[in-house]
């Protein structure tokens, strides 16, 4: 029952394909080549430290959501022995240190949202939308994430050669999104790797670019009165009497 429940979880249906053999050895060689070929991102001192010793395929497991009706199962992946794990942790730290994300619409917690809404002038015609991004990690487009990373690095004034090398490293990490389960090996066709220390940052790169493209203008023109996001949970306030809100590209996109 446990095996059937995990394998049939909607997060994997239609987006995961089975691979014939364990790709870990091949992936390890790819990681080593990436580490050696991008000296502006990974210096000589760090190379040995970023090579995973005795790598293993990430293992799919599950947690039972006891707080929800029917106690559904949440799949998760133990990525700590994957070939890219140490490299992903290093790259995540580097991207965070570059401070290229504005975090314009991110909220820290529900207290901050409550304070924001308290300071907002609410009219009878205002409506609130709450949204949840379903299966976030497995639905992100790989190319879209890379393009978002390049976008933010260019905007942040990162050196062109560094951007080229960082993009190559990110591509290697993203292409090694795989896991083992029940003595078989699987590779998602899109998305970022569950359990990777870099996936949260990659997700923010992508989502914050979408917000800059669609939400920023709607806020500035008052088509949307309020927008805030905590990871994959979104809250929006708009005015039903405002034609700009009814025709807002951002709202249509989010619907």
What general outline do the C-alpha atoms trace? globular
* Rounded Rg: 21 Å
- Classification by helices and strands: alpha+beta
Q: Largest beta sheet, briefly?
A: 3 strands, antiparallel
How many separate helices? Answer: 11
User: Separation of termini?
Assistant: 35 Å
User: Can you tell me the residue ranges where pLDDT is under 50 for at least 5 consecutive residues?
Assistant: 1-8
Please state how the strands of the largest beta sheet are arranged side by side: 1-6-5
Work out the helicity level.
Answer: 40-55%
Strand/helix succession: HEHHEEHHEHHHEEHEEHH
Strand content: 15-25%
How many strands in all? Answer: 8
Indicate the mean pLDDT. 88
Q: What report would you give on this structure?
A:
Helices cover 44% and strands 17% of the residues. The chain contains 11 helices and 8 strands. It has helices at residues 2-7, 24-37, 44-47, 85-98, 110-118, 136-139, 142-155, 160-175, 199-220, 243-246, 249-254, and strands at 16-19, 59-64, 73-78, 126-132, 179-181, 184-188, 226-230, 233-239. α2 (24-37) runs antiparallel to α8, α7 packs antiparallel against α8 and α7 (142-155) crosses α9. The chain is globular. The two termini are 35 Å apart. 29% of the residues are buried.
């Amino acid at each position: 029952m446990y095996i059937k429940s995990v394998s049939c979880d909607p997060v994997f249906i239609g987006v995961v394909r089975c691979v014939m053999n364990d790709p870990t050895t091949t992936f390890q060689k790819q990681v080593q080549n990436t580490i050696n070929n991008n000296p502006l991102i990974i210096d000589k001192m760090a190379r040995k430290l970023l090579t995973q010793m005795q790598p293993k395929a990430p293992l799919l497991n599950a947690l039972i959501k006891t707080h929800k009706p029917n106690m559904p199962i949440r799949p998760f992946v133990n990525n700590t022995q994957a070939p890219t794990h140490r490299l992903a942790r290093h790259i995540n730290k580097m991207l965070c240190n570059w401070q290229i994300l504005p975090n314009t619409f991110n909220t820290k917690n529900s207290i901050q949202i409550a304070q924001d809404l308290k300071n907002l002038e609410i009219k009878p015609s205002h409506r609130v939308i709450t949204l949840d991004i379903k299966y976030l990690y497995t639905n992100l487009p790989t190319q879209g994430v890379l393009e978002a990373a390049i976008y933010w690095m260019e905007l942040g004034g990162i050196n062109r050669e560094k951007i080229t090398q960082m993009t190559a490293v990110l591509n290697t990490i993203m292409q090694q999104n795989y896991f083992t389960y029940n003595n078989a090996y699987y590779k998602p066709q899109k998305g970022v790797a569950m359990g990777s220390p870099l996936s949260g940052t990659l997700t923010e790169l992508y989502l914050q670019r979408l917000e800059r493209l669609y939400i920023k203008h709607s806020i500035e023109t008052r088509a949307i009165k309020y927008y805030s996001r905590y990871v994959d949970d979104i809250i929006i306030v708009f005015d039903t009497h405002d034609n700009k809100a009814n025709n807002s590209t951002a709202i249509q996109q989010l619907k």
